[in-house]
Amino acid sequence: ATLNRFAFMVLQPTLIFSLLSQADLSAFHYLAVFSYGAGQAIIFTLSYLLCRFVLRHDIMESWLLAMAMIFVNSLLYIWPISTLIYGEAGNVPIVAIVAWDASVVFAFFVISSDLLANKKATLGVSFKRLAKNPVLLTIIFAIGFNLTGLSIIAPVKTALGFISASTAPVTLFVMGVILSRTVLMPSRTVFVLSGVKLFALPMLVAGLLLLGNWPADWQQLMVLNAAGPAGAMPFAIAMLYGISTDRIAPIIIWTSFLSLFTLAWLA
């Protein structure tokens, strides 16, 4: 729990700042990104209702299970694959989705999870607590820094790179400790939601992207990203607030394994 909190509150902000502060926002097709976001919103809503009222999980766990359906491991899983295939210049759609997830989607879940976990707190107390959240502060500062057009000086950029590179290993180590006492045989929830993650989200995103007019590589790479495995952030948030990870962690593991086949086909 201590390592997870350290990764979430200290290491994660450096990774977010490194990404958002240097992203070329002018190269993004924002309607394509918003179409992807619309697919995320629909799948999240349906997944939450499924978890809450059909699979009968409590509110907070259902919220984070639904988050796992739309929060793809884009940065550490899809990005290296797409860069290898399409090169840095052709990888802009994945950069756009990573920026979207880091700035909008992740901020939404940081705020909403905190409010759900502290439902008895007054609005003023909740606002003061969120105003001191290092993840949210980093997102705001990084976007502001990006809009200034300034570049990070080389020594600082190097330091940020060293620190942010520790985020994934520490989070995955924590997950490994939890999984060592978790049954990996998929339960009904894990089985159903793994299918939603691997098939429902990419199919819906592909359909929504057909409604717009943008370069073919944007459509192809966004569908590729949507078909990626669930990211570790729902697990990290669950650990942070003491929510059961018995279903969240196996979903991340199973989708990481099974997505090898769908990603190979889509790529």
Describe the structure in your own words:
With 267 residues, the protein is mostly helical. 76% of the residues lie in helices and 0% in strands. It is built from 13 helices and no strands. It has helices at 2-20, 30-54, 59-70, 74-86, 92-117, 123-131, 134-148, 154-164, 167-179, 188-209, 216-226, 233-240, 248-266. Helix 2 runs parallel beside helix 5, helix 5 packs antiparallel against helix 7 and helix 5 runs parallel beside helix 11. The radius of gyration is 18 Å and the shape is globular. The mean pLDDT is 89.
SSE-based structural type? mainly alpha
Chain-averaged pLDDT:
89
List the quaternary state of the chains. Answer: single chain
> Strand portion, in percent?
under 5%
Please report the distance between the alpha carbons of the first and last residues: 37 Å
DSSP summary, beta strand count: 0
Gross morphology is: globular
If helices are DSSP runs of H or I spanning 4 or more residues, what is the number of helices? 13
- Compute the gyration radius: what is it? 18 Å
Low-confidence stretches: none
Topology order in helix (H) and strand (E) letters: HHHHHHHHHHHHH
Helix content: over 70%
Q: Nutshell version of this structure?
A:
This protein has 267 residues and is mainly α. 76% of the residues lie in helices and 0% in strands.
Q: Which terms would index this structure?
A:
267 residues; 13 helices; mainly alpha; single chain
